[in-house]
Write a structure and sequence with these properties.
Strand content: 25-35%
Shape: globular
Distance between the termini: 32 Å
Number of helices: 4
Structural class: alpha+beta
Largest sheet: 5 strands, mixed
């Protein structure tokens, strides 16, 4: 199979917040919520990378190597053998940080789905779940962010 090429069109992705550990379902039951992280990526022809964050935690979300969206994006592009381009990233976050609402899981999922869109190729839900869980450590939140609705995760 030929190596995919990066698309140069803007890409917008989103993932919902989630509530996990429902009832007796510790690390097994989760529910997607009506708050989202939306990210638009616009590849740039030249210049420096730009990252703009608005909404919940705008002054707290790091735009460094610890940013879960960027980690997910880089992992996803690596899966396709691609390097991240110079880009403008606009993050609009409705998910409160550090409140048990899966903000980091949503960010990982957004990064991986954005990589798929940018490469014009498919990783598949199982692979995205595995990679995002490796990054985030919460398979229940990742499943809810990826699939939506009510999810049950088994090991």
């Amino acid at each position: 199979m030929a190596k995919p090429k990066l698309h140069d069109a803007p890409v917008t992705v989103e993932a919902p917040a989630s509530s996990a550990n429902l009832g007796p379902g510790f690390d097994a039951l989760a529910l997607a919520l009506e708050m989202h992280l939306r990210v638009t990526i616009t590849p740039l022809q030249a210049g420096a990378e730009q990252i703009v964050v608005v909404g919940e935690g705008a002054d707290e979300i790091g735009i460094d190597a610890g940013n879960r969206f960027l980690i997910g994006l880089e992992h996803g592009l690596q899966e396709f053998g691609l390097e991240p381009p110079v880009m403008r990233i606009e993050m609009n976050n409705e998910i409160p940080l550090a409140r048990g609402l899966g903000s980091s899981a949503a960010a990982c999922v957004c990064g991986l789905i954005a990589a798929e869109a940018m490469a014009g190729a498919d990783l598949g839900a199982e692979r995205i779940h595995r990679i995002a869980t490796e990054i985030d450590g919460h398979p229940d939140n990742v499943a809810a962010a990826l699939l939506g609705g009510f999810v049950i995760v088994g090991r």
